Every structure is written in structure tokens, then in C-alpha cells.
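Quick note —
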Amino acid sequence: MMSLIDGNTLALLGAAIAALAGIGSAMGVGIAGQAAAGVVAEDPKKFGKTIILQALPGTQGIYGLIIAFLIMVKIGLLGGNMITLTIPQGAYFLAAGVPIGLVGIWSGIAQGKAAAAALQLTAKRPDQMVKGIIYTAMVETYAIFALLVSVLIWLRIPV
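Predicted structure written out below.
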């Protein structure tokens, strides 16, 4: 009888979990976008300043997509010649997707909230926008840490 859980299934699950970071980015960009629309409604000339802050939470989804692609490339899925993985190998790929997938969800949302606050700062004191960007970018640090952990795990997977 064929098992539903094999190494390839676990590896693909790891890629899917990594891609879940896009949820955090979508929510974060949406939160910041709502705040940005409010700022631009009051002063349309601030569109250029608001778009920068609104875009910042989108990076977590990019990081998750990178890890998902790296997993799919290493197992041969994107090349059309998928290798057969053992369960331990698949578990390593699953482990590689988890850090950026989970941290990406939460940090994307948190970064959206920080960006929304920075947008309010920009609305009231446009000369202080850089400080708002710094506050927002601080959240990014944790997404980068998670990306680093995912990459380091991915690099060490024997195939």
C-alpha cells in the first residue's frame, strides 16, 4: 500500500508553508494601504511618500516565495525531473519552509501596523517620514532572521 506521506510530500509541504508568508504581506500591505488612503484623501501630494511605507510589508511574501522556489528547484520540481526523497530528506525541506512561513505571517502583519502608524506620523509631520520608515523597517529585521534560518537549513539538506 502506498503511503500518502513520503519525502516528496513533506518537501512540497515545506514549500507551501514558506509561501504562506505572503498572507502576512497581503495583510500588512492592506493595513498600510488603508492608512495611506486616509493620508492621501487629506493631501493628494503625499502619495509618493505614502507608497513607500505602504510597500514595506510586502517583503515577507517575497522572502517566502524565494524559499519556496529554492525548495522546488532543489527537489527538481521546476526542472521537470523531480527526485525521490526519503522521509528524513523531506522533513528537512519542511523544516526549511517553517521559519520564514510562520515568521513571515506575523511580521508582515506587524509591519503593516507599524507602517500605518508611520503614515499617521507622515500625515502630521511630513519632515519626520524617515523616522517612520526606520520604525517600520525594524520589524523587517525579524523576517530577515527567519529568511536566514530557512536558507541555512536549505543549504544543509543532502539530496
